[in-house]
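Q: I'm writing a short explainer about Putative membrane protein for a general audience and would like to include a description of its predicted shape. Could you first generate the structure from this sequence?
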Amino acid sequence: MLLLPIIMGMSLGIRTLVNDSSSAGAVIMGVTRSVVLLIAWVVGYFAFFAWGLWVKIPPPRNGRSSERKQKAFVATATYCAITLVAALITVALRPSLLLWAPVFAIVMGVALWEVVRKRPRSLLSGIATVVASVLMVPVADHTIRGSINGIAWWWALMLGIYFTGTIIYVKTMIRERNNPRYLTFSIGYHAVFVLISLVFAVLASCGVLTGFAPYTGLWWTVGTWLLVIAAAISLFRSWAVPRSAHNGGKWTPKRVGKTEQLVTLGVVIALVL
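A: Of course. Here's the predicted structure. Afterward I'll give you a sentence or two in plain language.
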């Protein structure tokens, strides 16, 4: 979830530049901006994670605790400094990116507040981080080209819906595994995902969304229907896997993660077609 959206946005922006017969210099500058953005994003995540550890470590009561908290603080400060430099360079190369600042301030503010409240794994925190992550699709495209392709918003929307569903599903396997109401909520959420993807597929088949896509015709339509299939698979696993675990199936977090990678791959393939 950390790298996939921004890489998809980078590939979309660079590919659009190439398809528009942009000069080699424009393509090189686009790649340069995107690489600096990628550095800011990844190191920024490290800063967020390190800060979360710093908050989590209790006030020093002995030398060891004090040392751990100090190390976490140094790591946080270091990552924040690198992130700030990379972000400033990115903005210097594309000043209009400042328009995104209020959006990310709100989203990350929610995530940070949940950490302060000792709820880093709450659903609200998860949704906030998902929103921040999927917004990197249009942000990356904007960074590279100075504008946003309509498909970037489509990708961000579908990835956001899918990743939010993944967070809910994983909770039914771990923290909420004995909560039947949460399982019902998870299944219902994934059913809505299927419905939304089905509506888009029907509209695409009718030619309504053709101008919205970077491609036209058959592949765009095929991709939307593949997304319906991927959504249906995610709906099935939101019911079948918790049921299997309830009946004694061995579903470790590692196994859950590996199977989810296959579903994610299906969603990505459906989107990039």
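A: For your explainer, you could say: The chain has a mean pLDDT of 90.
Q: Perfect, that's easy to follow.
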